[in-house]
Amino acid sequence: MAASAPTGARTGADAAQGGFAADVSCQWRARDCNPPVRALKSQFRRLRDHGDLLGFRMGPAPDVNMSKHWQGVQRLTANQGRFLAVSRSGKNVSFVVVAMASRDGSGERFRSNRIAARSAQRRPPAGDRVVEVVRSDPGFDHSGGIQSVGQFVVVGLEEGSRSRVVFWDLADPRRPRRTGMLPHATGVKGAGTVSIAKLRDGRYLLIVGGANANTLDFYLSRAGTDLTNPRFDHVSTWRESELVGGDSEFGNYQNLGLVADPGGTLYLIGTHRNAAGGPGSDFADLFRLERTPRTPRIRKIASRHLYCGSPGGAQCNLDAAGVVYVTPSGGLMLYGTEHDNDGPGGSVKAEEFRPAPHRSSCTSILDSWVELYDDTGFDGDRGVMIDYLDRGLRDYENYDRVEGFEDKSSAARWCLPSGARYRLFRHKSGCRGRSVDLIGTGFPARDPKFGDGSGAVRRFNDEVSCSRWIEPPPSPPSPTPPPPSPPTGKPDLVISNFTLGEFTVRNQGAAPASAFTVTLAEVGDFAFPGLAAGASQTRTYSLACEATHQATADSRSRVDESDETNNVAAFIPIC
Fold first, then answer.
1. How many CB atoms are closer than 10 A to CB 440?
2. How far, in Å, CA of 55 to CA of 320, rounded?
3. pLDDT digits over 151-162, tens only?
4. Which CB contacts under 8 angstroms, 24+ apart, belong to 8-11?
5. Per-residue pLDDT tens over the stretch 342-356
6. 328-349: b (≥16 Cβ within 10 Å) or e
7. Residues 521, 500: Cα–Cα separation, whole Å
8. What are the backbone angles phi and psi of residue 13, rounded to the nearest 5°?
């Protein structure tokens, strides 16, 4: 199932057919395409510069180190978004599959799985671990970047001057199935990054980055190609010197991911570490793909300085694994890992970077969150994310036990349902002293400066020592419905069934009947306490077979009926 090797660059009408417009009809968990990112440029610019701590255990995977390290990470949509595929270098392993069993199945933000008084020291849960190791192709010793499109994953492999792209079906992440291979033989050395997206015309765009991703080879799938049997043609090569827009910096990207906006415009997001913001600074860069008649044009749109550091040391390195993911609601998430596995207990450290705010509303207390920031203005320093769902994982009544955040809070963002509050206290040990409430409206709110005299929090800078959730009061019980109005009309009693040994009286009128009597000739009276509209009752009796059997409902005329002429029934039994 090898994809065709290129025979030379194809340009002009062949390459321009269909352009680079993405398929934006896809829903999350679609088989072979990814959903678009709503307000993509805005979400990228709002990426929280400090991520939420994640991690996973190595399970059956062989050890990694700085020379045989993680290369790319992709969160999968399979199993409700609770798996990762992480590529690595080394002869024997192409990538591993990680189950994030402790995370929920919403497909949205993971949230941290390492929350503690000092989260950097917390080992990830036992269920968050490598569950499958996928071997590399013989003769190849280095896997590059990785990206998924629907249930399919593409991985670049390298060895010396040779490189290739391997296609995998991860519909069942615990049983990866290889579907094809594309030799990368354009003269560009390496397959350090691999990016893929489905186009509006049904074809696939594949971009293979050479060493350091300074040169990109563009491939288009042949019409009718399915990723269970991929066939691609090389159509053009782009070089860093052709970059337009932005600051002209096209970094040595470890990973490049393709994403689309709702209009179908395709973008690349690259992750890397360089010295532009100081030694060891991590960045994500956003590029827009544009078409000229013969070659792609790449325009730099934005750059975001991210921080992998925490009070407990670096938790990721964007020169290791990093890539983007689109949530079911069209949210943009970015993930990064460290190079090896020097996290607590030999685990792998990672981070999840989300937009701030990461959701547009919170109608339920279960959706609620509060984020406190160390500095005013929200950017450039650490914070504490307090999700309602994780409220019991550390002691928020003593901020000495919350990442050392005692008397550190200078700003906040929050989202609480209407009626809910999050209360900040000046003193710990029982939450005492002056307090300030963050008030819920059902939508995100913010106060960028606790120390001033405006906003929700006034003159309360660096004073938070304790906090508590104040949930909305329970809804009042539903009022007892009033008794039904008495039906209009009158009752109407009839003998509806009369056989040898039993009779049935029925009220076929529109109102209940009060007490009445049914009289059977030669037998006697049968008293009834009343009968609701539409109801009936049956009684038994004994009478000689040869006699005429006659029954009269309301024989004493106690009930005012709508019809007084239909109370008698009679028959002569045949014995």
1. 22
2. 14
3. 999 999 999 889
4. 8/234, 9/186, 9/234, 9/235, 9/236, 9/237, 10/233, 10/234, 10/235, 10/236, 11/235, 11/236, 11/294, 11/295
5. 999 999 999 999 999
6. eebbbbbbbbbbbbebbeebbb
7. 13
8. -60, -35
